[in-house]
Specification:
The protein is built from 9 helices and 15 strands. By secondary structure, the protein is of the alpha/beta class. The structure holds NADP nicotinamide-adenine-dinucleotide phosphate.
Length: 315
């Protein structure tokens, strides 16, 4: 960043779990931003700033707003982000950046046309362990990678009906975090070769998935296991072996790294602070960051996926 940045006003649109847990404290901890408003169609928002029912009300009531963070479920993102870009606001998108590939592509085009920042965030990429893994892989070639992303959907998505609906991503809602880390670590495209999706008889989206990925930068195919039926503590692991025989284990969703069995210090709380620092810097430099490769891998899994119906699931 060149020189001190001025403080910019920002609103959060979509005031649910992630907005409350991470976006509010991270914005309040980032000197480049001041939280000016929230948008929550049904909820009261928070008491410190005004809350609006939708982005149209927000944009009318706070015309000097600089930026918007869109933290709704993915299906609502496109219309909100487009309206904000058209009103001249910089936009941060929670992951995934849209319900389709075309939506964020169009948003990126619009942002570029208007000279605005669009930041399609992948929070898992901002873990300290992921940066440490990238450094540990410098000068190495990856021989193999295994991804295992297992969690209890009842613990992490209580009452979130949208995750099971079309455009809700099912188990790919957390699984895309693993794919985003892999995309950051592998220095060439990763693509899906095979996919098997297990869909509960009473749902529209998979509760588990097995993928095989490939990349010209990895010696062997990459097995990926995503499962929402896991109890007894989440297991979010990526294991990597290099051609030179080094073994890396990224665990806790990318927060922790061990190299050849030796742990490196981790910090699970740095993801969103890093995201808002990057957003402020992108705005300062007049740049955009829109990497759609994790979303493309999910789309490929849905395109290629063999589907099996499994027993109905009650939340
Ligand atoms: P959530 O708790 O269900 O919250 C979503 C919020 O969006 C709700 O408050 C909902 O408001 C609001 N909303 C829906 N449509 C809207 C619209 N058109 N305009 C304004 N607000 C709207 O979901 P979440 O867990 O926060 O997840 C949101 C996004 O963050 C997802 O894409 C998810 O992948 C991502 N994310 C979640 C987590 C996590 O741990 N939960 C972590 C990282 C990323 P109403 O309730 O009033 O309808």
């Amino acid at each position: 960043m060149s020189g001190p940045e001025r403080e910019r006003s920002i609103a959060i649109v979509g005031f649910g779990k992630i907005a409350r847990d991470q976006h509010v404290p991270s914005i309040e901890g980032e000197p480049g931003f001041r939280l000016a408003a929230t948008v929550s169609p049904r909820g009261p928002g928070m008491d410190r700033v005004p809350n609006f029912k939708d982005e149209v009300e927000l944009l009318r009531a706070v015309p000097d707003l600089d930026a918007v963070a869109v933290c709704t479920p993915p299906g609502a993102r496109f219309a909100i982000a487009r309206a904000c870009l058209e009103a001249g606001k910089h936009v941060l998108l929670e992951k995934p950046p849209g319900a389709t590939l075309g939506e964020p592509e169009e948003l990126a085009r619009l942002a570029e046309e208007r000279g605005l920042t669009l930041f399609a965030t992948w929070h898992a990429q901002h873990n300290h362990g992921v940066d440490a893994a990238r450094r540990a892989l410098e000068g190495e070639r990856i021989r193999s990678m295994r991804i295992s992303w297992r969690e209890d959907v009842r613990k992490w998505h209580p009452g979130q009906a949208w995750i099971w609906e079309p455009g809700g991503f099912g188990v790919f809602d957390p699984g895309i975090n693993a794919l985003s880390i892999a995309a950051k670590l592998v220095p060439a495209p990763l693509f899906v070769r095979r996919a098997k999706l297990s869909v509960p008889g009473n749902k529209q989206q998979p509760i588990s998935a097995e993928l095989t990925l490939a990349s010209p930068a990895i010696g062997e195919d990459v097995p990926v296991e995503l499962d929402w039926r896991h109890s007894g503590g989440e297991r979010w692991d990526i294991a990597i072996r290099t051609e030179s025989g080094r073994e890396l284990l990224l665990s806790e969703g990318g927060a922790k790294l061990a190299v050849d069995g030796e742990g490196r210090p981790g910090d699970a709380n740095g993801e969103y602070a890093s995201i808002y620092r990057c957003f402020a810097e992108l705005i300062g430099r007049g740049e955009r960051e829109v990497d759609l490769s994790p979303l493309r891998m999910v789309a490929e899994a849905f395109l290629l996926g063999e589907r099996e119906m499994v027993e109905p699931f009650e939340d």
